[in-house]
Amino acid sequence: MESLFQLLVLAVLGLFGGVLSGVAGVGGGIVFVPTLVYAAGWGIKEAVAASLVIVVFSSLSGTVRNARSEDPVEWRPALLLAASVAPASLIGVYISTISPTAVVQIAFSVILLALAYPTGRSRGSGPPVTGSKGLSRPLVSLYGAGIGTLSGLVGIGGGVVLVPLLMLGFGLSTKRAISTSLAVVFFTGIVASAGYIATGFSDLVSLAPLVVGAMIGAWLGVRLRDWLPEKAIRLGFAGFMVVTALRTLVDALDIL
């Protein structure tokens, strides 16, 4: 009975992470890592690896659903960012195997706090973009490498940083940036989770409840996002960035 109850808890938490993935374009890793640590009793490094596996499925579900959304993926900036974010996630995987993550978590928190205010104020350009508005390709690659490293290291897809980058740097509206971010998160999750599997992570079967819940949740999250006002999502995402930054900072200070 306890085992069944735990499976149900994991499925519900996966559903919640999936909804967050669809609404905010973040993959859901910010929910999956603490779920595995505190609800399932996993170690932090195993939870990070598992989170990235789940992120692959949640972001895939959300990306497929986004094809029917009012704000579909902008594939040019998505592929441009994925080309640097996904490979760089392996740097984070490597760092996680040889060193503590506290310093990088602190840096991640500072970046989120710095971006939260401009993200909340930005209105984006609304219409689809045709190129990297205001950003050179080398700069995009540099940002992408940093985001990818953080993704592989702390077990998130990177969407919490990708969304403001797509809004502020590429001129995308909030909803279109979220759709585009989810596509980048999908490619990043594939590469990073493959890196962890190659280094020995193999406990995949036990992730089934979270995977199923996340896939259903992401589909529902995209539908919910279509109904919500642009301003509400923009301000809500900025608030989410602050909460994520503070939670990550507390985790880092606990490690130190």
List keywords for this structure.
single chain, mainly alpha, globular
Plain-language structure description:
This protein is mostly helical and 256 residues long. The chain has one domain. It is 79% helix and 0% strand. The chain is built from ten helices and no strands. Helix 1 crosses helix 3 (44-66) and helix 1 crosses helix 8. It is globular. Residues 126-133 have low confidence and may be disordered.
Please give the radius of gyration in angstroms: 17 Å
- Our measurement of the CA-to-CA distance between the termini, rounded to an integer number of angstroms, reads 38 Å
Which outline best applies? globular
State the domain count. Answer: 1
Low-confidence stretches: 126-133
User: Which structural class should the secondary elements be placed in?
Assistant: mainly alpha
- Percent of residues in beta strands: under 5%
The percent of residues in helical segments reads over 70%
Subcellular location: Cell membrane; Membrane
Protein name: Probable membrane transporter protein
Organism: uncultured Rubrobacteraceae bacterium
Main location: membrane
